[in-house]
Design brief:
Layout lengths: L8 E12 L2 E12 L3 E5 L6 H7 L10 E9 L2 E2 L7 H7 E4 L10 H11 L5 H14 L3 H4 L12 H13 L5 E5 L7 H14 L4 E5 L3 H7 L2 E6 L2 E7 H6 L4 H7 L5
Parallel strand pairs: 3-8, 3-9, 6-7, 7-8
Antiparallel strand pairs: 1-2, 1-4, 4-5, 9-10
Helix pairs in contact: 3-4, 3-6, 4-6
Length: 257
């Protein structure tokens, strides 16, 4: 069961089901994800939280045997509609993965990749986009003289920031983050969390995390998933302090998971 979110919903999921072949991975998920807030999805491994995240921009389309039913919309536009341009959809909904995955290109070309793919050819325009993106993630001062350096030569935290800048470069409305700090040390994790809090003024952010303390630190809303079901959704403080479902209470208390 989910709570109705008071803020305007940026993303609405209605009776959404997903099967991997015969496996029912998501079961009748209903949720409204609020605009320009950080929403965290928590739950044990294999509960469906990353599958739900990837469903929001149709990243599961590439997996053989996937079947979906129900509806996902962003700003009332049907994500799975017959006329939906998936390339444009993914421009609106950026994705940051669990481990930093910069392209094997220069720092500049990583950030410029999306705009170039979508038709930007002007070197001046690309340079402005790269600078804006790197400033947005706090990397410009460190990398302004190293734009031609290979991205894979950067430390892990800088690589992840670069991936966030790459996702931002197409000017999305939404940023999806699948355990963005799991490969980082505690200091780097705090820096990425601080960056999330800065970015939420401009973006709707949805994160998947196994770190319940992280969910409490950064999110305004949280959902607990178990065996493909969204068991409970609401304000993060309420979900952790006064869970309405005993399964949620048991999980956040550490009794399983």
């Amino acid at each position: 069961m989910t709570d109705v979110v008071e803020q305007r919903a940026k993303i609405r999921v209605v009776d959404f089901n997903l099967h991997y072949g015969d496996f029912h991975a998501l079961k009748s998920v209903h949720v409204d994800i609020p605009d320009r807030q950080i929403t965290a999805l928590i739950g044990p491994s294999g509960c469906g939280k990353s599958t739900l995240l990837r469903s929001l921009n149709r990243m599961n389309d590439t997996i053989p045997g996937v079947r979906i039913a129900g509806q996902v919309s962003i700003d009332m536009d049907d994500v799975y509609g017959a006329n939906t341009n998936v390339e444009q959809l993914r421009r609106r909904i950026g994705m940051v993965f669990q481990r930093p995955n910069p392209f094997p290109l220069s720092v500049f070309e990583n950030v410029a990749y999306g705009p170039r793919l979508h038709g930007t050819r002007s070197r001046t325009a690309l340079a402005a986009t790269v600078e804006e993106g790197l400033r947005g993630v706090g990397l410009w001062d460190a990398l302004m003289d190293r734009l031609d350096d290979h991205a894979l030569s950067l430390p892990a935290e800088q690589q992840q920031r670069l991936c966030i800048a790459r996702a931002m470069a197409t000017r999305p409305d939404v940023l999806l983050m699948d355990e963005p700090c799991s490969a980082l040390d505690p200091i780097a994790t705090r820096r990425i969390e601080s960056l999330m809090r800065e970015l939420v003024d401009r973006y709707t952010i949805v994160i998947v995390t196994h770190n319940m303390q992280q969910a409490q630190r950064v999110s305004s809303h949280a959902g607990f998933m178990l065996m493909g079901e969204l068991v409970e959704f609401g304000a993060t403080e309420q979900l952790f302090a006064a869970s309405r479902d005993q399964r949620t209470a048991d999980y956040v208390a550490g009794r399983f998971g």
